[in-house]
Design goal:
- By secondary structure, this protein is α/β, with parallel strands linked by helices.
- The protein has helices at residues 4-14, 36-40, 43-55, 71-83, 122-133, 176-179, and strands at 17-23, 29-34, 64-68, 86-93, 96-99, 110-118, 137-146, 159-164, 169-170, 185-186.
- The chain has a single domain (4-192), classed as Rossmann fold.
- It has six helices and ten strands.
- Helix 3 crosses helix 4 (71-83).
- The longest helix has 13 residues, at 43-55.
């Protein structure tokens, strides 16, 4: 069983935990960013961390794992591999998260929704809604990192995460880093789609 401290240490050692001035997918600004691809580019570390997360869902009869593009694709694949089920992903079309590429869920199919990093919970709520609209029965949600301090995770299903910490984030109009003139980094993918 992996401790939260060991999971966080793995994120730090992989170079995934950054400091600076970042634009988050939510539109908010923060002085901390988790660049999950520094972890996800390392299959050995990804497998080790996600094996602990997968263990927590083994008894829930998961039949499919769904993750939102882009970062959720790798997480969904590895979680599905560990659980011995199939993996699908949702992507944006017309600004809305949806299943494409022929991905389907069977009515009542037990679905585990996964996400990489959550700050406000918007993307993971969208992914849960995608699974439900497709007829899936959402068994739970698995996260690599919860940056909200638990505030964003009232989803009505079991939620498990590897690491949780409360990172400061600000509305752009109230951002102290903007006022100090610190250059803003755009590292997320949503603004590129």
């Amino acid at each position: 069983m992996l401790t939260t401290e060991a999971a966080m240490q793995t994120l730090v050692e992989s170079g995934a935990v950054l400091t600076g001035h970042f634009l988050l997918t939510s539109g908010r600004h923060s002085n901390q960013y988790v660049e999950k691809f520094r972890l996800l580019e390392r299959p050995d570390l990804t497998e080790r961390l996600l094996s602990d997360l997968a263990r927590r869902f083994r008894s829930m009869n998961v039949e499919v794992v769904l993750g939102p593009a882009v970062g959720g694709i790798i997480v969904a694949y590895e979680m599905a591999r560990q659980l011995g089920v199939r993996a699908v992903f949702a992507e944006r079309e017309g600004g809305r998260l949806t299943l494409r590429r022929g991905f389907r869920l069977r009515p009542g199919e037990r679905c585990l929704v996964v996400e990489d990093v959550v700050t406000t919970g918007g993307s993971v709520r969208e992914a849960v809604a995608v699974a439900q609209r497709a007829g899936g029965d959402v068994a739970g949600v698995a996260l690599l990192v919860d940056r909200s301090g638990g505030r964003a995770l009232n989803l009505g299903v079991p939620v498990e995460y590897l690491v949780a910490f409360e990172a400061p984030s600000w509305d752009p109009a109230e951002c102290p880093l903007c006022r100090q003139g610190v250059p803003l980094e755009h590292r997320g993918s949503r603004d590129l789609l």
